[in-house]
Amino acid sequence: MSSYLEHMALRVKDLNWHLKFFKEVLEMDVRMTNEKESPNRQVWLYGGLQLIEDLSFNGVEGRCAHLGIMTENQEAVLEKAYARNVKELPQGHNWFQLPDGLCIEVIQVKKDGVQKYLDIDPWL
Q1: Which residues does the UniProt record annotate as the domain VOC (predicted)?
Q2: For 101-121, what is each residue's pLDDT tens digit?
Q3: According to a count of CB atoms within 10 Å of the terminal CB, is the N or C end of the chain lower?
Q4: H helices of 1-122, where?
């Protein structure tokens, strides 16, 4: 039996900044929200990411090691990410860190790989 990560929940201090980053850089749209006001807002993005607003969050402890994100155009994603002054990591140009410490690895997917993943309905 094969498995895949359906979503990963991450605490973030600035939910709006993260929503804009994942939408504009990685083209990950909102799938669902809990419709609450701050400080307990939560948003689920297509592609398996849940963001939980935590206004008291000040570091990377308890978050995760990194996000591995598959993309159809690694070069374009990296160009957009570095235009936002993210910090390149020692692992390579496709690894970077967001301002509050979240590390991302951008991986080039094979043809149609992203759409095939997004077509999966995890609730069936």
Answers
A1: 4-124
A2: 888 888 887 776 667 766 777
A3: N
A4: 15-24, 74-82, 113-118
Question: Which tokens go with 62?
Answer: 């308890």
**Terminal C-alpha separation, the chain:** 16
d(CA 34, CA 41): 6
Q: Find where tokens 């993210």 sit.
A: 86
Say yes or no to pLDDT of 91 above 80: yes
- pTM, two decimals, is 0.67
* 8-118 is a CATH 2.40.110.10 domain: no
Structure-block tokens of residue 7:
């979503």
Distances (CA, A) of 94 to 57, 83, 89, 105: 26, 14, 8, 6
Q: What are the tens digits of pLDDT across the range 20-59?
A: 999 999 999 998 898 777 667 889 898 888 898 888 888 7
